[in-house]
Amino acid sequence: MHKQLAPRPHGFIDYALVLFFVLAPSLFGYGDDDRAALTSYIVAAAHLGLSVLTAYPLGLVKLIPFPIHGRMELVIAFVLVALPWIVGFSENDAARNVFIASGVATLAVYLLTDYRTSDIGTTWGRGRPATR
After folding, report:
1. Could you tell me the sign of the dihedral formed by the alpha carbons of 56, 61, 63, 69, in that order?
2. What pTM, to 2 d.p., does this model score?
3. Which of 21, 31, 57, 108 has the largest count of CB atoms under 10 Å?
4. pLDDT digits (tens, 9 = 90+) for 58-94
5. What is the C-alpha to C-alpha distance for residues 67 and 112, in angstroms, rounded to an integer?
6. Do residues 112 and 90 lie in contact, with contact meaning Cβ atoms separated by under 8 Å?
7. Per-domain residue ranges for the chain?
8. What average pLDDT does the structure give for the chain?
9. pLDDT tens-digit map of 21-69
10. Residue 3's pLDDT is what?
11. What DSSP letter does each residue of the chain carry, written as one string?
């Protein structure tokens, strides 16, 4: 499968996801559900931390190699789907559906992203210029 998404647009999606989870409780009407809203804010903060620490064009500290970021996002995709049951807000239709849809979207981004490229213009482990 040809990976369509380069690190820079992936980074924009990552930061958009952070903003989405910050706004989701208000946008989707589950701000009064403490567990669901707090989980949204925690997911936003965690993904912000991951994005800031990733070695890609929009990362600020560049500690986490982009391929590791990808593996973490694969896990995150499944965790997002499970969180309504883990945290105990699965009965809240709006919140549950936001987390399930976000998990599916995160999996789609994972499948479309070329994690072998980095912000320094080389393909991880191959030593040749990355295509962007």
Report:
1. negative
2. 0.86
3. 21
4. 999 999 999 999 999 999 999 999 999 999 999 999 9
5. 13
6. no
7. 7-112
8. 90
9. 999 999 999 999 999 999 999 999 999 999 999 999 999 999 999 999 9
10. 78
11. ----B-HHHHHHHHHHHHHHHHHHHHHTT-TT-HHHHHHHHHHHHHHHHHHHHEESTT-SS--EEHHHHHHHHHHHHHHHHHHIIIII-TT-HHHHHHHHHHHHHHHHHHHHB-TTB-TTSBBTTT-SBPP-
Between 118 and 7, residue with greater pLDDT: 7
d(CA 21, CA 53): 19
When computed from its CA atoms, the radius of gyration of the chain, rounded to whole angstroms, is: 16
Beta-bridged to residue 64, according to DSSP, are: 54
- Quote the CA–CA distance of 61 and 55 in Å, as a whole number: 7
How many CB atoms lie under 10 A from the CB of residue 86? 11
Q: Which amino acid is at 48?
A: L
Residue 46: exposure state from Cβ atoms within 10 A (0-12, 13-18, ≥19): middle
